[in-house]
Amino acid sequence: MAESDNKSANLLAQETAQLEEQLQGWREVILAGDRVLRWEKPWFPGALVGATTVVFLLIYYLDPSVLTGLSCAVMLLCLADYFVPTVALKVFGSNKWTTEQQQRFHEICNNLVRSERRVVGWWKRLCALKEEKPKVYFASVISGLLAVAWIGQQVHNLFLTYLIVSFLLLLPGLNQHGVISKYTAMAKREINKLLKQKEKKNQ
């Protein structure tokens, strides 16, 4: 067991180091984005929502086709991948990189690797469920897809995408400031109250 844990920790450290190397040119930009996403200043949430709203209003106004939208998105990613490392090096400079910044950059890369592992783990569990309990898998997947299809039919797809993107951008800040844990704890207390009430009624 201890040997397995050591292998897992070593593999995690290796994957984190590889990701750090791949994102070396983006490290200053990533740290700046991290500060915004964690709401280090009180006006950051408003700026996030405002910027997201402007982008989606522009998409709504231009109303591009799916192919045009995908082409523009990929083009912007390619331009960013080419220009950002060069511009970041000239703007920030490599001499200003501190030990604290390196530690935070390492934590971000470590969290990204862990998140990737969670996604892969969920996918493996889903595949295992398909093999072990095909009826449960089929019912769960079909029910989930029907629910998503119904929601997509009721809400405009662009507005729904806007809500999802806004929530994902605000999620790190909500988690950092304890909003998620606060309301999760409240929900758990309410559920426990309901369960206790049901037990009393059954008695």
Short description:
This protein is an all-alpha fold and 203 residues long. The protein is 87% helix and 0% strand.
Describe the structure.
This is RETREG1-3/ARL6IP-like N-terminal reticulon-homology domain-containing protein. It is a multi-pass membrane protein. It is found in: Membrane. The chain is mainly α. The chain has one domain. It is built from 8 helices and no strands. The longest helix is centred in the middle third of the chain and has 34 residues. The radius of gyration is 22 Å and the shape is globular. The mean pLDDT is 87.
Fill in the keyword field for this structure.
203 residues; mainly alpha; 87% helix; 0% strand; globular
SS-derived structural category: mainly alpha
Percent in helix:
over 70%
Count the helices. How many?
8
The shape is globular
SSE blueprint:
Elements: H1 2-22, H2 27-37, H3 44-62, H4 66-92, H5 99-132, H6 134-154, H7 157-176, H8 179-202
